[in-house]
Amino acid sequence: MGRSQHRQGRALELRHLQKPRSTARGLYCLQIFNGLESITSPLLRGRHVQKTNMSTTASAKDIQSSPLYNADLAPVSAERRTWSTYNYAALWVSMSVNILTYVLAASLIQGGMDWKQAILTVFLGNTIVLAPMLLNSHPGARYGVPFPVLARASFGVLGANVAAVLRALVACGWFGIQSWIGGEAINTLLATVWPAWRGNPNGTAICFAIFWVINLLVILKGIEYIRFLQGVSAPILLGVGLLLLGWAYFGAGGFGPMLSAPSKFLNTADFLKFLVPALNGAVGFWSTVSLNIPDFTRFAKDQRGQAVGQAIALPLTMTLYSFIGVAVTSATVVIYGTAIWDPVQLLSRFHSPVAVIISLLAILLATLNVNIGANVVSPANDFSNLWPRKISFKTGGVITCFIGVAMMPWKLLANHKTFIFGWLGGYAAVLGPVAGIMICDYFVVRRKQLLTNDLYLRGGAYEYSGGFNWRAIAALVTGSAVALMGLVISPVRFLYDYSWFVGFAVAFGVYWVLMGSSRKPA
Question: Could you please report the per-residue DSSP string of 493-509?
Fold first, then answer.
């Protein structure tokens, strides 16, 4: 392609971004000036995934030789886009039916809610987070690119590393938490079959290391191994949940006594003080995956399939499995006189070794599945984005394993306050702004139009200033600072209690204003 054509194509995109006209007209002008193949669905009305490459400023050969490219970050080809509604529903069932879903719901009971309040909080939180989840899913399904590459459109080809690393560090923390739970399960399992193990003061740490190694081996198998784990783990863990529910039903004397525990809050004001950060934590629970969901939707057959699968499975599965956590934890108050929110610790009190062994093995399998699917795929891609030529997906996964240990997950799970108010609320203040910036950029600034090849090039449409879009960085810092302000200034504590919402809204607004005040957004 000649230099004049290159300049014409770039100028046309920039004029389109500055002063949006008809989307269809913009696409057909791109066809005329840059020789695009026929685009049969310019507006992509949700029926089929965009199969054509929107960028013509560089050839496939050019991007393959770029330092920003590797095979793991490349756009997914049409023949590899095979995931249907079932696959996305199965993905969310397998990720939602996990120990941390149980722990999240159980921690609300331990915090003082009754069962109705806890279930409603979980349902509302997951319904809210579904919105950014589906919005960020769209570009992944349309252009076939993963989260760290998509972030280059808004943050710049190098600035995207800031957003990617923030997301990756949070995922590393979750990886460590899940690995610690898996280690606890192995420790309890060994103590059940080998009573002498109970006297080992380092038992939990040793088992944590064992489960960590198991995760590492699965990572080295690659992403396709995840689909196998999805198919077998969710039904098994659901069975464990039903087993616990049955035990609670008979142990407490029926659902009446189980669910009779009243709310500990004496008035509405006390309830709201706990509800607000709890709801924020419920949103923050999956705000991580709401950013990197393009890592999965890039394999979608069509937009409708991935959207329907997620919309059905996420809120319903989370709510239903949360009910098990709520009901069982409420029953422990009746049976033991105190709320036991850790299912592994609860299983250790069972008198049937067979039931304990089967249940713990199921927990190990399900925890492994969620750890790989939710906490490795994203950071592996994110770390790969830092140095595409040297860091592959598998290498990124290995890095995730080591950082997960360094984040000391045993402290994050110390109690329900540390888990909800500290961990969930803290990282929500950072990831909310990232989501606000990316959604604003894709839907408002660019109106869903990206030059795919330029996402892999230096000096392309997303170079900005030395590879960084400082407007996005400024919006990120502003959104996070406002949300975290509530930690240090008591009168505005509500800003931190609503950290994800505040960060999202502030960053969205600041980014929109800064991009609008610029002569050209790219």
Answer: HHHHHTHHHHHHHHHHH
Residues 336 and 251: their CA atoms lie apart, in Å, by 10
Q: What share of the chain is helix, strand, coil (3-state, %, to 5)?
A: 75, 0, 25
Rounded-to-integer distance, Cα 237 and Cα 287, Å: 23
* Strand, helix or coil for residue 465: strand
> Tens digit of pLDDT for each residue in 273-303?
888 888 888 888 888 889 889 989 999 999 9
User: How much is the CA Rg of the chain, to the nearest whole Å?
Assistant: 24
Look-up: residue for tokens 């890039």?
A: 298
Name the residue with tokens 């290498």: 395
The torsion angles phi and psi of 295, rounded to 5 degrees, stand at: -60, -25
Q: What is the band of 455 on the pLDDT scale with cuts at 50, 70, 90?
A: very high
Nearest to 511 by CA among 479, 465, 463: 479
Contact 174, 375 (CB under 8 A): yes
Considering 32-46, 129-143, 363-377, the range whose residues carry the highest mean pLDDT is: 129-143
Q: What is the pLDDT of residues 144-200, one digit of tens each?
A: 999 989 999 999 999 999 998 898 888 888 888 888 888 888 888 888 888 888 888
For 217, how many CA atoms within 13 A lie in the half-sphere containing its CB?
7
Instruction: State how far the Cα of 114 lies from the Cα of 390, in Å rounded to an integer.
Output: 51
Please, what CATH class does the domain formed by 3-517 belong to? mainly alpha
Q: In the Cβ-directed half-sphere of 366, how many Cα atoms lie within 13 Å?
A: 28
Please state, as a whole number, how many other Cβ atoms lie within 10 Å of the Cβ of residue 468.
18
Are 173 and 419 within 8 A, CB to CB? no
pTM of this structure:
0.77
- What is the DSSP annotation of 252-272? HTSHHHHT-PPPS-SSHHHHH
List C-alpha distances in Å: 321 to 35, 103, 122, 250: 52, 10, 10, 19
Give the pLDDT score at 416: 63
Gap between the Cα atoms of 26 and 23, Å rounded: 5
Span 488-493, average pLDDT: 88
Q: Domain map of the chain by residue range? A: 3-517
Cα-Cα-Cα-Cα dihedral sign, residues 243, 244, 246, 247? positive
- Cα separation, 262 vs 216, in Å, equals 44
Average pLDDT value over all residues in the chain:
80
